[in-house]
Amino acid sequence: MSGAQTLTLSMLEPDVALLTFDTPDKSANVLSESVLTELETHLDALEQRADLAGLVIGSGKPGMFIAGADLREFVASLQVEKSKIAQMCRRGQTLFGRLSKCPFVTVAAIDGICVGGGAELAIWCDRRLLSNGAKTEFGFPEVKLGLYPGWGGTARAPRVIGLGNAVEMITGGESVDAATARSMNLATDVVPADQLLSAAVALIRDEQATGQFQRDRRRWSEPLGISETELGFLGATASAVIRGKTKGHYPAPEAALEVMLEAASTDVETACQMEAEGMAQLFGSDVNAALLNVFFLTDRNKKEKGVAPSSAANLEPTAIQTAGVIGTGIMGRGIAAANLRRGVSVVVDDASQEALVRGAQAILEEAAYDRELKGPGSRRLAELAPNLRLCGADQQWAACDLVIEAVVENLDVKRQVFQRIEAELPETAILASNTSTIPITKMAETVKHPERFCGFHFFNPVRRMKLVEIVRGEKTSDETVVSAVAHAKRIGKLPIVLNDGPGFLVNRLLFPYMSEALALLAEGARIKDIDRAAKAFGMPMGPIELYDLVGIDTATFAGQVMADAFPDRIAASPILPAMVEAGRLGKKSGLGFFNYDNKRQRAEPDPGLEAFLAEFVAAERKFARDELTDRLFMPMLLEATRALEDNIVFDARDIDLGLIFGLGFPPFKGGLMFWADRIGAAPLLERLKPLERIGPRMQPTELLREMAAANKTFYPSSH
Ligand code: NAI
């Protein structure tokens, strides 16, 4: 055992013991190897005592029961042999299983987060009491990491809460709140946090009097008693739901379903064995490693301040109480709503009075959006309305700590806006632009305080896309960056910090991929095959359909900017301007590469497209799936190595965060650079060989060659 103890034993009453989890110096309680050993030692001693009526397990941290297993320990053991994995599961199952066999009643008293391994520990107890606190949640999120509960969760949960509930919780990975837990018998009762311990003692007395816990122990160790027909029905419906969500890319939910169905007709001990054996297929798999990587990427991002640690130490972010948003079009609305929703007062303005009034309404509705209502909640609307002000006079900018400009993409217009606003802004305020294509340094040339100016680039739709690119102009100060990063996090976003350059990061990597799709089309590849190759790789939609979503006019404009910046590798295809001219603007006009003139506005093939494209495309040619995949993703990867070479991005891990949260790059691949590392730089060079004749866009960069020669990876070897 190392360091300070996590578990403390005390007595609630002479015959009722309390084990309190409280990991020293951490905000969360996690189940590390040493904590499991502590628990084991305590149980060894407690089980010997004849004087106990009950044991309560609680936490010393308000709002936090147990957040799960120690994932850093997990990562360290990813490479272990399969037989070892089953043993690791058996260890947890046996240890937690003792909670269902102790010579006294066991009760988990849960206030706050109880997930993963914590939920498994709790479900092995005879009873669970949940607090009605806002933070209380109970869940098995393991599938989000490519795993399923392996310390007995899949064996025990179906027996305690019913197979249907267990399948939903374990294969979906979403937590339930206390009231839902109560309704499925997961919680015996829900009480205020400060009454948890007294309620637990009362419950123990009650159980001892009725002996109900003993009957439940027997029942929950047996087979489930569900007919084959019922099992078949549940299996078929659950598997259809899972397939619909995972598209076959994430094996864990299906493996969880399978093990729960198969183990339904066995006793709990056999169910545990099956669970442990099945886990060996998931633990350490590529998907598991990739999803763990995504977890660590986001975790690292939470801690990063946006500048080198040596500078960060002396910098405190400026608190943003009031944010200004100028331009209430598509983006300005989303940006204003994101601020408002997180308690930031917002001042908005637009050149068009009509756009301003309509925009304000849309901002409030979006900020008050309630997922359950599928619309704005009226109470929330009333709460938020006073925090949104329409700018009546420029003096109102004086109240702002940050102003984000989201007006039309035109340098002169933006410059005029900055000039007007800057005259009113307080000395400490930050001025930022949401531009997609105009260089930040160029815009900064005419502002009074270029050190307090930066790019604050959101993605569309703002509500769904978590990424924000914070772009440094040449003169942007560290202080400005630290404040912008802190503010982006405050409003629920994932910021990555970049140096200025065409397309910043995400669009710079998107366009080589998008324009390659058009090159393939011109060479005679079928649209269906191009889009399918991208989706089979894991992208949420194919590049051709994405053109329609972005809008052909917007894509033409942005594509031209990229083609001007990187003429050796991005060619502006003649297809796009021809489409714009023909009014084929994509989804927004009902017709682009696909036809959207149907009830659900879905992309359907357009019978007229072939004739329209005839002058631009060669005769149809069959491409192998692998060729399509490499043609689409190698230009993206090579561009990423150039962005690193050019010092646009400082760490390969930011590229992965950017692509996953800004583009929907498949999390099960762990990110573009993580994927490239799995392949290795030298094999990548081999894969590029047959493509090199296509031109510079397919030729290895200096960085990739050096990495291959030195056998290096993009990620640091231990992260
Ligand atoms: P939009 O056309 O929907 O909205 C622009 C708004 O700015 C309009 O309401 C217009 O009336 C207003 N406006 C024009 N001139 C103005 C002025 N001088 N003062 C005040 N308001 C003025 O445009 P959208 O799509 O919201 O784009 C805004 C900015 O965000 C652009 O810089 C664009 O490049 C950038 N952006 C757009 C994304 C997108 O997907 N639409 C994604 C990321 C960035």
What does this structure look like?
With 719 residues, the chain is α/β, with parallel strands linked by helices. The protein has three domains: 7-284, 2-enoyl-CoA Hydratase, Chain A, domain 1 (Alpha-Beta Complex), CATH 3.90.226; 315-500, Rossmann fold, CATH 3.40.50; 507-710, N-(1-d-carboxylethyl)-l-norvaline Dehydrogenase, domain 2 (Orthogonal Bundle). 48% of the residues lie in helices and 12% in strands. The protein has 31 helices and 21 strands. It has an eight-stranded mixed β-sheet with strand order 14-11-10-15-16-17-18-19, with helices on both faces. A hairpin with an 8-residue loop joins strand 17 and strand 18 (467-472). Helix 5 (153-161) packs across helix 6 (163-172), helix 15 (330-341) packs across helix 16 and helix 22 crosses helix 27. The radius of gyration is 28 Å and the shape is globular. The structure holds 1,4-dihydronicotinamide adenine dinucleotide. Residues 326-332, 349-352, 355, 406-409, 413, 417, 434-436, 458, 460 line the site of 1,4-dihydronicotinamide adenine dinucleotide (NAI).
Which SSEs are present, and which pair or pack?
Layout: E1 7-13, E2 16-21, H1 33-47, E3 54-59, E4 64-66, H2 71-76, H3 82-97, E5 105-110, E6 113-115, H4 117-124, E7 127-131, E8 137-139, H5 153-161, H6 163-172, H7 178-183, E9 189-191, H8 196-210, H9 212-220, H10 228-246, H11 251-262, H12 268-282, H13 286-303, H14 309-312, E10 322-326, H15 330-341, E11 345-349, H16 353-367, E12 369-370, E13 375-376, H17 378-384, E14 388-390, E15 402-405, H18 411-422, E16 430-433, H19 440-444, E17 453-458, E18 467-472, H20 478-490, E19 494-499, H21 506-522, H22 527-537, H23 543-550, H24 552-565, H25 575-581, E20 594-595, E21 604-605, H26 609-613, H27 625-645, H28 652-663, H29 672-679, H30 681-688, H31 702-710
Parallel strand pairs: 2-3, 3-5, 4-6, 5-7, 6-8, 7-9, 10-11, 10-15, 11-14, 15-16, 16-17, 18-19
Antiparallel strand pairs: 1-2, 12-13, 17-18, 20-21
The structure holds 1,4-dihydronicotinamide adenine dinucleotide.
